[in-house]
Design goal:
Radius of gyration: 16 Å
Bound molecules: N-oxalylglycine, nickel (II) ion
Number of helices: 3
Mean pLDDT: 92
Largest sheet: 7 strands, antiparallel
Distance between the termini: 36 Å
Number of strands: 11
Oligomer: single chain
CATH class: Mainly Beta
Amino acid sequence: MISIEKLNLAIDQLSDTGYFIWDDFISKEDVGELVLIASQGNQSGDFKKAGIGKQALFQLDKSIRGDYIQWLDRSNPNELVLQFLDKIEVLKNSLNETCYLGLKDFETHFAIYPENTFYKKHVDRFQQNAHRVISFVLYLNENWQEDHGGELALYLGDKTEIVQPLAGRLLLFRSELEHEVLMAYKKRYSVTGWMLDKDMSLTFLP
Ligand code: OGA
Ligand code: NI
């Protein structure tokens, strides 16, 4: 269940500052299970090297990003993954009702950053990806220490917010904000996604 107070706080902060940190979005038990699902998927070859750009402009470049991803949708056999998708759907609909963001859909994937990888400064909403409105990242790193690095640096113009990728934490931010995944010195797990202002099956259209 999503707490109404927390939801209202998220809505206020997203419109005031452009981001919101939601701790304990899922329980520690669920975090453990999702990590297991991700690492099993990784071992069975379901993950692929993440690229940059879309379709014809797609390229692989590990000097820009070093993560491996697996897309998640309703065909996923894991009950917990489906539960997470449901929770994001509820969140998306609530944001819509209150903020009139015109959110129609979302896309999401597991991400694994192997040791000593990063994702250089970028925005999630750009010409080839014009339909991303709100970015969300659920972190799955139990016992993460400061010296493991892997923080998300969110550039807010006058200040930079450094977010630790702590287990159960959901970070929400406006997709046009510049951000960066700093070097992770330890394997880093997350579920990353975007709420879109267009139906997923139509995002290949301008
Ligand atoms: C991304 C991204 C942030 C994070 O995948 O576009 O910026 O903290 N991820 O994993
Ligand atoms: Ni990003």
